[in-house]
Amino acid sequence: MRAFSPAIVSALRGYRRADFLADLGAGLTVGLIALPLAIGFGIASGVTPQQGLWTGIIASLVVALLGGSRFQVAGPTGAFVPILFSVVAVYGYGGLALATMMAGVMLILLGALRMGKLLKFFPYPVVAGFTSGIAVIIFCGQLNEFLKSSRSRPISKASTGRPLPSARSLSESSTRGRLSPGACRRASLP
Predict the structure, then answer these.
(1) Between 64 and 149, whose confidence is greater?
(2) What is the pTM of this model?
(3) Distance of CA 177 to CAs 86, 147, 149, Å?
(4) What is the rounded (10 degree) CA torsion for 157, 158, 161, 166?
(5) C-beta separation of 126 from 60 below 8 A
(6) 15 vs 80, which has greater pLDDT?
(7) pLDDT(28) > 70
(8) N or C: which terminus of the chain carries fewer CB neighbours within 10 A?
């Protein structure tokens, strides 16, 4: 078994000015997409935009320095938003930081034990179903924005000490007696 070597070690051998310019263009392209996405996912996850931005920056640097492929792109992903939001809502930011560290330790252990080979046993319908389910959850989570409800997103129980309002109470009280741009768009559809 050969020892792990980050991709950056082999990438820097024979590195030329043309390579740097190509990497700079690729980095700017990914950064223009990933950093605003990280801010948006931070807000959607129930933390501050600054925490989302710093997470995107630090995670990208860690993957760039320790990643196993020169062509790997790392950035925020929408699949984690519902999970992160529920962790923040119940346990606050401290619980999110702890869950993140625990997940990192598990990923390192799985990598050290060479368990990545087991991914080929996940059937495609399971992966597609998971991805579709996350898409539906994110879509439903954005309905209040689409309908321009006056209610703001609930603050975590950990920060207020009060239980979060139910989804039903939010939906019943948020659109009563109001005509929003979203409702106009829905009414104009054939």
Answers:
(1) 64
(2) 0.58
(3) 30, 12, 11
(4) 10
(5) no
(6) 15
(7) yes
(8) C
- What pLDDT band is residue 151 in, cutting at 50, 70 and 90? low
Residue identified by tokens 């600054």 is 50
Burial class (CB in 10 A: 0-12, 13-18, 19+), 9: exposed
CB-count exposure of residue 94 (10 Å: 0-12, 13-18, 19+): exposed
Question: Taking Cα atoms as reference points, which of 21, 154, 168 lies closest to residue 85?
Answer: 154
Q: Which two tokens stand for residue 88?
A: 């923040």
> Per DSSP, which regions of the chain are E strands?
none
Q: In sequence order, what are the residues at sequence separation of 6 or more whose Cβ sits closer than 8 angstroms to the Cβ of residue 43?
A: 49, 52
Share of the chain above pLDDT 70, in %: 75
Instruction: Give exposure, 174-190, as e/b (b: 16+ Cβ within 10 Å).
Output: bbeeeeeebeeeeeeee
